[in-house]
Automatic annotation (TrEMBL):
Name of the protein in question: Major facilitator superfamily (MFS) profile domain-containing protein
Residue ranges of domain Major facilitator superfamily (MFS) profile in the record: 18-470
Gene Ontology terms: cellular component: membrane
Organism listed in the record: Brassica campestris
Matches recorded under PANTHER family: SOLUTE CARRIER FAMILY 2, FACILITATED GLUCOSE TRANSPORTER (PTHR23500), SUGAR TRANSPORT PROTEIN 1 (PTHR23500:SF574)
UniProt cross-references to PROSITE patterns, sorted A to Z: MFS (PS50850), SUGAR_TRANSPORT_1 (PS00216), SUGAR_TRANSPORT_2 (PS00217)
Membrane topology of the entry: Multi-pass membrane protein
Amino acid sequence: GDGQKAYPGKLTPFVLFTCVVAAMGGLIFGYDIGISGGVTSMPSFLRRFFPSVYRKQQEDATTNQYCQYDSPTLTLFTSSLYLAALVSSLVASTVTRKFGRRLSMLFGGILFCAGALINGFAKHVWMLIVGRILLGFGIGFANQSVPLYLSEMAPYKYRGALNIGFQLSITIGILVAEVLNYFFAKIKGGWGWRLSLGGAVVPALIITLGSLVLPDTPNSMIERGQHEEAKTKLRRIRGVDDVSQEFDDLVAASKESQSIEHPWKNLLRRKYRPHLTMAIMIPFFQQLTGINVIMFYAPVLFNTIGFTTDASLMSAVVTGSVNVAATLVSIYGVDKWGRRFLFLEGGTQMLICQAVVAACIGAKFGVDGTPGELPKWYAIVVVTFICIYVAGFAWSWGPLGWLVPSEIFPLEIRSAAQSITVSVNMIFTFIIAQIFLTMLCHLKFGLFLVFAFFVVVMSIFVYIFLPETKGIPIEEMGQVWRSHWYWSRFVEDGEYGN
């Protein structure tokens, strides 16, 4: 590239191992997304905790299908987690900076464990919600520390692929949860939902034990003044003896970050305008693709489109599998075709599918939401297009929504900026989870058109404002902004030290 440094280093088994273990942090997030939608479509669970929704479901099928799940407590159950995650990701920022990335992962695992146990044994709605809040605290810590950990551990040539390990484990978590829901829903006596919710203990234990054996990142050791250990660690991670160039750059970046007393205030400086913009816009747009709605409420959505409980849990498994497969495509392509190509291709694909799904649902349900009988081929068409939509998301906005923000921040603002990314993500996940069922009730099939409109906006945004970041060492990112037609006016040459 243009005068960029190429640090020596190969993909050592050691790095692969640490990155795989750390990426498991995504499992807890994914498992939760997959479980909550499936559990809320299990009749025994609804009867016990949300009797009003259960009654609406049992009434005759002539009721408005768009509105059958519109209940404030049900929505609170789903979305309380995201508010908790939002609060804890702000706390996690300080822990991650002062005590290292590992400790944040450990906290995340322990909190998540506690929440899972409370949910599995829940007797009342308030227990469910307390459990969800603890799960949320855990997720805030994990989502704050894991993407940073992966970006700092990975050799820059493979950073995209290793970082997407986080998104891959989110999608695997979703899929496992959906498969379990399908089988647990069949348990006689209707207590399968306890296994679904309590099962979250397993991914939580993996990340808790994982964080006990993982090393901390050299970047984070240097940040805490452990220079010698950091250099030894860097040699081991990169698998080469001569790491002095990368090491010196890390030390320089760290000195610069030490001289900054308020990383939050610092983010507002003019030279960080491009970083701040991306930290806010990327997660904002990621949620407005409407993906979490599809994943969260897949069973509920398919139920509404007229599938039986069994069939709707099954079609959720299908979308979940597509999600995992497409994320693998992105691991293969992200360092090859680049970030921008994937963003734009995925956007186009999602747009077409959203338009088709809206047309299908609109044609069949009309505006009053009474479908009558659904022919089988029709249901298959809807599920197919939802799958193509999920695939488009899973190799573009899904993984890149976490990867790009975590790789563009210089060390001195990295931890604070990553918190902003997680917070914005959680705020909009929360808002959309809160209003989705109500919006479905009022906007009907038009809801898909709303999301389609945002997909157009975000694709234009990427095309104009997002520079390509593949294959650039993480502490060299300043170059990218300096040579960008728009951002260069904010970032002057001497500003990055090196």
